[in-house]
Backbone:
């Protein structure tokens, strides 16, 4: 019976982020937060594996209690949360996640391929590296089979079917499944499940953010009148 | 030394161009891990080539680059931001206990620090990062940097003996994607359609234009997520797919923030819309105001004759 750990990040609803017109900085006050899309695909896949092989799904979440409730309502058995801290990067997050995962029993760790706010693709590979377990990235199909995992990975121009022994870490793509939407009953039922708040040690950082500024899209904005003219433009730009 | 690696040859040569520039400004050497034609690598800027027979397993690549890092202590490691590149770079960084920035669109040296820029928050914001400790590791976005070729250049080839340990991962099968399976992210030309389309059957108008141009069909959120006239693989936008074609034609797409964020990296954007006040006209290079049902068939005919 596989013990599966899913790592999830709570992010701002990107569509709601506004720009401060004087500083060009993002305005996040009052913006709703949600679980990052591909991380939900990872959780969904863990739940499907549990439905097939039974076992247990533990969610480790970088975010608030609300995020934990969302994951528990979807079907995770238990959640651990880390609240937001200042000055943390992927180096530190991987160390923190590894620290708590090493206290747990696990066969499989699932992560989203990237979070949609940063699109860094770093957490899964880094975590596997710290834990010293095999990593298979960009999975669009997963099959568990007697202590082994077979994964179909999506790369630029090819699919690669790979096999490795458990325990392993797999990062999943959006295409792997359609995350379930919890029912009201499941949302209510989730309140009985355990949420453990973790207090991570301060971590060394490897990068410093100097600025995050809105980018103006500079486009030509030329309006043409005739289809002939449009065709010419298309032919010269293709 | 600056060390360069990419599993994609073209990307490697592009990054060598940027690497040469930084190496010159820091007065240090530029090394490349062998990935093909050695003459081209020298011509593209390398001083040294570390020639290793690397299998395309990410476990091996992490080990090879980490070993080179231990031995030669490069200041900077620049890696092509392919899917494989974005997996190995963070792993090498974690092993060395340093930071890493992925998908960088620019990098420069300021006072010995590597400063990189990358898009965040759905591509609407540009993040500027400083990497704090050596090796300074970044992956650079493919197609963003320019190759600089000087055929008179030459350099030294260093053969690196390497006996790979057995990889933990076994590749059972590799299936090449059929052209129609290529993801919309890979397409050079995308013809995208939005709510301006009146019924599902009319998608064939868009398909014929795409065919005439050898492009892929994309769509806005409503067409994929609400109306389900096209599969989600075709959905261009923040929550759909971020694309980077040479040419993007938005047909009957109003141009909401989420859609624009998904096409930020397109080289040229053309808009066809009947509403002169549609926001897409403020986010395109060329636009034409008019009925798509009149414009698209005529345009397709004209292009068919000329392509």
Residues:
């Amino acid at each position: 019976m596989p013990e599966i750990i899913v790592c999830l990040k709570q992010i701002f609803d990107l569509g709601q982020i506004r720009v401060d017109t004087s500083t060009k900085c993002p305005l996040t006050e009052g913006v709703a937060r949600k679980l990052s899309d591909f991380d939900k695909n990872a959780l969904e896949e863990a739940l499907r594996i549990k439905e097939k092989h039974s076992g247990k799904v533990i969610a480790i979440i970088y975010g608030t209690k609300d995020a934990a409730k969302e994951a528990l309502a979807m079907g995770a058995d238990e959640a651990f949360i880390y609240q937001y801290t200042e000055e943390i990067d992927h180096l530190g997050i991987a160390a923190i996640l590894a620290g708590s995962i090493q206290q747990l029993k696990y066969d499989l760790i699932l992560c989203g391929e990237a979070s949609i706010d940063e699109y860094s693709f770093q957490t899964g590979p880094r975590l596997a590296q710290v834990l010293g377990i095999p990593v298979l990235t960009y999975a669009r199909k997963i099959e568990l089979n007697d202590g082994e995992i077979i994964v179909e990975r999506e790369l630029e121009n090819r699919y690669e079917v790979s096999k490795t022994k458990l325990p392993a870490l797999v990062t999943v793509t959006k295409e792997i499944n359609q995350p379930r939407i919890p029912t009201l009953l499941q949302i209510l039922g989730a309140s009985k499940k355990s949420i453990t708040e973790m207090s991570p040690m301060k971590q060394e950082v490897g990068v410093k953010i100097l600025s995050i500024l809105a980018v103006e899209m500079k486009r030509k904005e030329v309006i043409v009148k005739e289809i002939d003219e449009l065709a010419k433009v298309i032919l010269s730009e293709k | 030394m600056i060390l360069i690696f990419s599993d994609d040859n073209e990307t490697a040569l592009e990054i060598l161009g940027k690497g040469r520039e930084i190496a010159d400004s820091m007065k240090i050497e530029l090394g490349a891990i062998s990935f093909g034609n050695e003459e081209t690598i020298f011509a593209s800027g390398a001083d040294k080539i570390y020639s290793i027979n690397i299998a395309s397993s990410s476990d091996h690549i992490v080990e090879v680059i980490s070993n080179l890092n231990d031995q030669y202590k490069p200041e900077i490691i620049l890696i092509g931001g392919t899917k494989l590149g974005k997996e190995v770079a963070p792993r090498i960084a974690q092993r060395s206990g340093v930071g890493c920035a992925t998908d960088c669109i620019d990098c420069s040296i300021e006072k010995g620090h590597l400063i990189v820029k990358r898009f965040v928050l759905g591509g609407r914001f540009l993040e500027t990062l400083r990497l704090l400790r050596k090796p300074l590791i970044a992956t650079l976005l493919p197609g963003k940097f320019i190759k600089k070729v000087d055929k008179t250049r030459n350099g030294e080839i260093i053969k690196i003996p390497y006996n790979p340990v057995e990889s933990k991962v076994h590749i059972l099968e590799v299936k090449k994607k059929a052209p129609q399976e290529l993801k919309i992210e890979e397409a050079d030309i995308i013809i995208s359609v939005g709510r301006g389309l009146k019924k599902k059957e009319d998608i064939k108008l868009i398909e014929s234009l795409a065919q005439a141009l050898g492009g892929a069909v994309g769509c806005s959120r409503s067409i994929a997520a609400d109306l389900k006239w096209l599969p989600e693989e075709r959905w261009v936008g923040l929550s759909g797919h971020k694309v980077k074609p040479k040419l993007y034609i938005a047909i009957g797409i109003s141009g909401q923030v989420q859609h624009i964020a998904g096409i930020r990296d397109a080289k040229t954007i053309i808009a066809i819309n009947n509403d002169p006040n549609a926001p897409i006209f403020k986010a395109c290079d060329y636009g034409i105001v008019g009925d798509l049902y009149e414009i698209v068939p005529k345009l397709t005919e004209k292009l068919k004759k000329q392509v």
Observations:
- The CA atoms of residues 148 and 165 of chain A lie 4 Å apart.
